[in-house]
Design a protein that fits this description.
The structure holds two protein chains of two kinds. Chain A has helices at residues 18-30, 37-58, 92-95, 111-118; strands spanning 6-13, 65-72, 77-84, 121-127, 131-139. By secondary structure, chain A is an alpha+beta fold. Chain A has one domain (6-139): 2-Layer Sandwich (Heat Shock Protein 90). A five-stranded antiparallel β-sheet of chain A has the order 1-2-3-5-4, with helices on one face. The longest helix of chain A has 22 residues, at 37-58. Chain A is globular. Chain B is of the alpha/beta class. Chain B has one domain: STAS domain (Transcription Regulator spoIIAA, 2-Layer Sandwich), CATH 3.30.750. Helices cover 40% and strands 40% of the residues of chain B. Chain B has helices at 22-39, 57-71, 83-91, and strands at 2-8, 11-20, 43-54, 75-81, 99-104. Chain B has a five-stranded mixed β-sheet with strand order 1-2-3-4-5, with helices on one face. In chain B, strand 4 (75-81), helix 3 and strand 5 form a beta-alpha-beta unit. In chain B, helix 1 (22-39) runs parallel beside helix 2. Classes of the chains: A alpha+beta, B alpha/beta.
């Protein structure tokens, strides 16, 4: 497996005020690869969805830690792993269906669908009672560097 | 996020400013709903022109306001949505609902 050219780890409690911090932190880290504005928006949106899932679902009536581990690679690949040790998902396939939600009337049920569509790859591993790990991957378009 | 509400006759416009996520959507929702329930507008406009970032919580915000306006016999219109917002609106199948759309941002 190829080695990343850089990586970063973050741990934060599942307070909703950390939603914006998490996506901005990942975006700042990924900025080293010189992404386009659209690429950054896609990554920020996907990270926001994954972190919101931890807050709304994994730690529904409690506060727990959210672990973020992001890596960037020479070929422009970005990977972001977002992990919680919350309640876990019983039926991952059902949870990933667009519009399925257990989050109540104000939730659209689009979280996983957005992650899937805004990133190139989405992996979800979950064990009930143990927690969920989401891995987001995106290949940034490598642009010719103009060093003049 | 801040919400700037203006009312003109039976039209109420909420200009959303900043970023919409699960954290910020709650306050926006409470402000808008309180005003809608007070003035009972025929048309509610959600203006996304000043939104710099939005995740699917914004879609929940739209769906909830659509439901509210429906109950009150009014209409919801959304304006100035960005590329990302339009993409999520499509994913959510909001086209099926009777939501008016106006002007799109680049």
């Amino acid at each position: 497996m190829k080695k990343p050219i850089n990586e970063m780890r973050l741990v934060m409690p599942s307070c909703s005020s950390n939603e914006s911090f998490a996506r901005v932190a990942v975006a700042s880290f990924v900025a080293q690869l010189d992404p386009t504005i659209d690429e950054i928006t896609d990554i920020k949106t996907a990270v926001s969805e994954a972190v919101t899932n931890c807050i709304v679902h994994a730690y529904k009536d409690s506060i727990g830690n959210i672990y973020i581990h992001s890596k960037i690679f020479e070929d422009g690949k970005v990977s972001v792993k977002i992990r919680d040790t919350g309640c876990g998902i019983g039926d991952v396939k059902q949870a990933m269906e667009p519009l399925f939600t257990t989050g109540g009337e104000e939730r659209a049920g689009l979280g996983f669908a957005v992650m899937e569509s805004f990133m190139d790859k989405l992996k979800v591993r979950s064990t009930e009672g143990r927690g969920t790990t989401v891995i987001l991957e995106k290949y940034l378009i490598r642009r010719e560097r103009n060093d003049n | 996020m801040t919400v700037r509400i203006t009312t003109e006759g039976e039209e109420m416009k909420a200009l959303l400013v900043g970023e919409i996520d699960h954290h910020s959507a709650r306050e926006a929702r409470e402000r808008i709903d309180a005003q809608v329930e007070k003035t009972h507008p025929k048309l509610l406009i959600l203006d996304f022109a000043e939104i710099g970032f939005m995740d699917s919580s914004g879609i929940g915000l739209i769906m909830g306001r659509h439901r509210l306006m429906n109950e009150l016999g009014g209409t919801l219109r959304i304006e100035n949505t960005s590329r990302t917002v339009s993409r999520m609106i499509k994913m959510a199948g909001l086209g099926r609902l009777s939501i008016e759309t106006g002007g799109t941002k680049r």
